[in-house]
Specification:
The protein has 148 residues and is α/β, with parallel strands linked by helices. The protein has a domain of 81 residues: Nucleotidyltransferase, domain 5 (2-Layer Sandwich), CATH 3.30.420. The protein contains 3 helices and 5 strands, in the order αβββαβαβ. A 5-stranded mixed sheet has the order 3-2-1-4-5, covered by helices on one side. The longest helix is centred in the N-terminal third of the chain and has 18 residues.
Length: 148
């Protein structure tokens, strides 16, 4: 009996399934990778007003006194003439007070003390000045100095 010899076939590695697998792995790693944070997304602290971590000893409130003649006094400093209805100097001072209170992480408070003979329009002028300075914490005080 004669034994037949079989021809050995060359084994070839098929490239199609291997390329498919590489592409699947590539897509998987691309989807699961975290995106790199761009430079524009990084927050910076520019020079200027910086919020304080510790509270500073600033006056808790500003006291505005309206005299009988219509003059405005902020903490014993005259800031408004009786004829001035816009009160630009008072608004500027209150805006600086608001900025310093925001930097100190505290609320800007204003106590309004009007004399007994004060016109109602003058009180409205002062309230408008507080609104232009973006101050919402306004309280009234009676002539004896007690808050209402």
């Amino acid at each position: 009996m004669r034994i037949r010899r079989r021809d050995h076939q060359l084994v070839e590695m098929q490239m199609g399934p291997m390329i498919d697998m590489v592409f699947l792995l590539l897509v998987f790693f691309m989807v699961t990778a975290k995106p790199v944070k761009q430079e524009s997304d990084i927050s910076l602290g520019l020079p200027g007003t910086v919020a304080q971590e510790e509270a500073l000893d600033l006056p808790d409130e500003q006291r505005i006194r309206i005299e009988d003649d219509g003059s405005i006094m902020l903490n014993d400093s005259v800031l408004g003439a009786p004829a001035d209805s816009q009160l630009g100097e008072l608004v500027g001072t209150l805006k600086r007070f608001k900025q310093s209170a925001d930097a100190n992480k505290s609320e800007a408070l204003v106590t309004l003390d009007a004399a007994d003979g004060t016109n109602h329009q003058r009180i409205v002028d002062v309230l408008n000045a507080c609104a232009r300075a973006d101050i919402t914490g306004v309280t009234f005080s009676d002539s004896a100095g007690e808050e209402m």
